[in-house]
């Protein structure tokens, strides 16, 4: 599996895709193998390393998840684990099932954004409260002291009047023509550099939960 991973593309574009449909091992095993070559796979909220993601109505979702906030609607652009002191470096996602109209995943590499100097400054100076239970903290989206972006409308609350504007700066509406879309097919694995590429999901309403199953492994 590892020889299929295009490290150069991952490094230059911020994400890369692998077709594992012909692999002789199971998809979960392939995802775990790939994740292991990138770093240390880590569980989220004590769950298994390989998580299954399906469209989930709000009432059945985990209390601190995007599904709880947005249900089967579109997920805003975000990074995963924005509530960790240092977010995970890579997110490995794989399509276990898709019925032809599975909600697409959108990707937005931060380095391609054309922001004004004022807008860039706001990313560095506007403070958000990052909800993480007893370990909540305050943080900006960007900082010269770190190389990762921290952004997730699901767990970051504005603390001042410029907060909502910063949220809209990184919304999918604003960058609709720059989004790179993943049309999921069974067996496709996508590796995303979570430090510099935002991701979101199209609305999944009306899609049977079993018809759109992604596997995900977080890598530190
Ligand atoms: Fe995510």
From TrEMBL:
Pfam families: TauD
InterPro entries for this protein: TauD-like_sf, TauD/TfdA-like
Origin superkingdom: Bacteria
Sorted UniProt keywords: Dioxygenase, Oxidoreductase
Domain TauD/TfdA-like: 181-217
Gene Ontology MF: a single term: dioxygenase activity
Protein name, as recorded: TauD/TfdA family dioxygenase
């Amino acid at each position: 599996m590892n020889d299929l991973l295009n490290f150069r593309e991952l490094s230059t574009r911020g994400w890369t895709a692998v077709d594992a449909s012909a692999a002789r091992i199971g998809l979960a095993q392939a995802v775990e193998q790939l994740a292991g070559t990138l770093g240390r796979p880590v569980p989220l909220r004590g769950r298994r390393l390989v998580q299954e993601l399906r469209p989930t109505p709000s009432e059945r979702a985990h209390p601190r998840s995007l599904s709880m906030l947005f249900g089967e609607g579109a997920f805003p652009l975000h990074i995963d684990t924005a509530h960790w002191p240092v977010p995970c470096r890579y997110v490995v996602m794989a399509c276990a099932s898709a019925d032809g109209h599975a909600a697409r995943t959108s990707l937005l590499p931060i380095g391609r954004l054309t922001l004004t100097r004022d807008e860039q400054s706001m990313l560095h100076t506007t403070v958000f409260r990052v909800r993480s239970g007893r370990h909540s903290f305050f943080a900006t989206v960007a900082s010269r002291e770190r190389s990762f972006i921290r952004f997730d409308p699901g767990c970051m609350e504005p603390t001042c009047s410029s907060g909502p504007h910063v949220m809209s700066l990184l919304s999918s509406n604003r960058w609709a023509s720059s989004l790179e879309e993943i049309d999921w097919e069974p067996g496709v694995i996508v590796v995303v550099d979570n430090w510099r590429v935002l991701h979101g999901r199209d609305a999944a309403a009306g899609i049977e939960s079993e018809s759109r199953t992604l596997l995900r492994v977080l890598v530190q």
